[in-house]
Amino acid sequence: MIDNPVKTSIRPGITLASLRITPAFAAAFGVLLVTVIALFTAPYVGMADNGDFFRIIYSNGLYFNLPDYDSQYFGYFIKQFGIYQYYNENSSMLVSSQSLFIKLALLFNKLLFSKEVFDIRFQAAIYTLLYVAAVYLLIEAVTFKMSRKRGMIVAVLAVFIFGDTGYTAYFNSFFGESLVMVTMILVFASWLLLYRKRYNDYAMLAVLLVSTLILTTSKQQNAPVGMVISLLSISLVWIRRDKLFRWVTLLSAALMMFAGIATYLNISKEFVNINQYHAMTRGVLMESENPETALQSFGINEQYAILKENTYYDQYGTVDVKSDLLEKDFYSQYGFVSILKYYVTHPDQLGLILDTAAESAYTIKPAAMGNYEKSAGKEFRAQSHFFNVYSTLKEKLAPRTFAFILLWMAVITGVYMPSFVAAVRARDYRGMQRLFVILATMLVGLSGIVVSIIGAGDADIAKHEFLFTLAFDLITFQVISSVIGRGISSRKSMPAAPPSVPAPEYAALNNGVSI
Amino acid sequence: MKRGGIIVLLLLLAGNLLLPAPAASAAASPAAAQHILLLYDSLAKGTGKEGNVAELQRLLAAYSTQVTLKNISDYEQGSLTAYSGMITVINSAELKIANSAYLQDAAGYQGSVMYVGYQPPDRVQQALQLKTDIWHGASASLSIGGFTGIPLEVEEMPYITASQGGRTYGGWSFEDGGVQIPYAVSRGEFTYMPYLKQGDLSSMAAAYVLKDWLKSSARPRTYLVLKEIYPFSDLELLEQTADRLYQSGIPFIASVRPVFGNTDFPAMKRYLEALRTVQSRNGSIVVNAPAVRPPISLSDRSLHDKMNSFINVLAEGGVAPLGMAAEGYWTYDKEYSTAGMGFFDSAVLYADEEARYMEQTDTSVTFPSTVYSLPLEFLQGISRTGKAMPELPLNAAVTVDLPEDEAALDSLMQNLGEEWYTFADYKREAHKVVTDINTVESADGVIYINGNNLNVDYTPRTIAADYQYQEKQATSFNKLFSVQNQFFIIVILIALLLFGGLLTIGYRLYRRKYLK
């Protein structure tokens, strides 16, 4: 066990005019600089509304105040919205932790800018600060004990990946992905810092807990996230001996599980219908060799095969997607579990749909939404290419099959397995945490894919799979940083946490992967 | 000679009787050329009068009258001269009209004028010697045409207490048994109709008044329309319903939902089979408007191609659509009326359930044949002078949803039998539908597709379910690859065995060297 608090050794850094520049500071500053240039200087980069914004903004006291707002859907980023001056009769259409941040941004907006007009850049500013803090913690965890030179290489890599406007453009939008991004990185970083024993364990546990709660409740599809992290974080109970920590950790895990279940139960009816519709029309029916047989297996009239490949948002359709007819004869006949069962019994179809999912699994910023304001004079749906080399390369180069995802998961797990086994042998629970955090991140990413497919077929898949693409980047970044740090299985590797065990035991830690 | 003259006269009469019915009854109406300005002070949202303006729009459409709808406050000076008539709806009992341009133009207007609601202007009051009051009771009975003493729930209802020298329409009797007073009154170019509510007999009463006001002479017809027919409806029950109606001698219209994709699937073929059966049972087909999502952008211009393709699928499948059925607001939308309804010259207009405009316009599109619709329940058990259902003043469709089960079908047939309706055959009128490659026409009960007479007699076929949904990927060198696969499998197995062997040998050597 490694549980004695030890003072951190002096870390590599550059002293410049009495300011010590650490890799974490450099990465955070780099990301901040790029993001500020992209989001806060003209032409402003943001994301156009795809028709989803109304769900979150109306319940938060905002409305579309542009007369030609409708004509800008998908095409142009809009940065200003109206603030309700009277009683807002729109009850919360969507319960999401995102509301907290919109309300906070609204508060600053009212204090500093206007009481009638909301500028979305106030929200972007809040997210940017949190994001920069998250990146700082991440690099702090990854470059811990790394030489200055190597640390700086990692910092540059971090700016390259996490400063990409594919990620940060979300801040200038009401998409939940912005919050998912910030909190997911915080979850990863805080857990890794617990493994490193870099900061106070209680503080890091608090960051982990709060981030997980916000992440889980930010989007309904994130319900499994709370459950996955809850289950794997139970392993944190044993990293310290004191009872207080153990109880606090157990309680945290219980809260995360509760948040996951509550999010699942809180999914609004329409939201369920949208995804349920797509799960059948753009999932089961799409890849089935015989849609009629597939429908019969759910006890649904085979004639519904006509709906194959239809979407909930089709402007013109045979039937109103909210009609009583569909409610009675279609929606009521299947759910998440029955579709899961269907895929389990039809693995060939599951394989096909997973491959379809893998096609879009590496897209960070969907091309369907434009990034510029109309006033910037760019064409409809024009995409920003400022600082997006990473997202472009990733989308172009990543192999687009699900088999690659499985292979990637197997390789990563295999790479970290020896150090995990060593930690298990040494009964070093803290040393085991690195594999747990990687597994948790993988499963969270995988849940993004599976929930998207089972829950909504291939509809809007690039955006639904955001969680996977982020998880992929976090893990890959961690692995590359490991390589940059010392090489994968270097004998000269550093311990996970400062040594607090006798030398022979400590030596056992050095088997396998380390930084 | 005398006898010969009588014979000639009889022959002429017989010939006249045997001649086909006049094509497109509405087309013969002088109302077809009219363009009416419909003004309102408010839409009375949230009150009992909400929807009365929309009801007027739909009634006017049924007389093939083009309408321009405006709020009085938006009226611009001088624009009244462009219209053949003006209807003003005043839904507010207190608010005075402030638009002086309107007041000035209306005061000097020489065309036909109708006022509906509160506060008829002085000019109308003088012309009709009108005195009005407001009935504060909760109900009153209305009689008009063949309908007698229909109790209606009313609320703050303006009514005519006295008028002179004009023509009166229908009559109210109040719950206290008071004297009968007219529902509406007209004289010369002026008509006053104090009360109109959507969804009760007052809207039918308004139809009687409008028929006179628009000088419509066309003989109205009543049709039976089966609604809610989807490809995933119980198609057997649809065929059964068509069969029962046919056996009862009731012609009907089937308003069928369009399908915009997967039209080569067996499911679509079965749908077409059912529609052909409906057609063979004296059913006429109209295309129901598609379900519309609230438009999020104006960029989706696919409606024209979708409707075009669906009508072609029907025509090629031997099903002849003769018109389109849509909510009334479709005729006030540029995109829907042109891209969606532009193929048809005949329309059945339903009451608006939820208007989801894409490109709203204030002026309606008209059709030579337009049918107003009302649900079967509206007329069911209604009090009337004779046993038979009175003739309605306008072309009307009595709508009924496709029964959900046999019990509902039995009940429908019973209702239709009890009420003594006289339903007309839609295909006896002239209808024309034109797509890029097909032309469907009907006249005198005969349907033509691209000029060829369509034989509606049909014996349904069973649709085979062995459809190839997924296209098989074109493959080449199958045999070669299969041999190649097997070759590699063998090579890999040999390599694995070799490695296993080497590992075992290596491990033994290691043990011998270090673990002795």
From TrEMBL, chain A:
It comes from the Bacteria. The chain crosses the membrane at residues 21-45, 120-139, 151-172, 178-195, 202-218, 224-240, 247-267, 402-423, 435-454, 466-485. Keywords: Membrane, Transmembrane, Transmembrane helix. SUPFAM superfamilies: MFS general substrate transporter. InterPro entries: MFS_trans_sf. This is Glycosyltransferase RgtA/B/C/D-like domain-containing protein. It comes from Paenibacillus phytohabitans.
Automatic annotation (TrEMBL), chain B:
It comes from the Bacteria. Keywords: Membrane, Signal, Transmembrane, Transmembrane helix. Residues 1-26 form the signal peptide. The chain crosses the membrane at residues 487-510. The keyword Membrane applies. This is DUF2334 domain-containing protein. It comes from Paenibacillus phytohabitans.
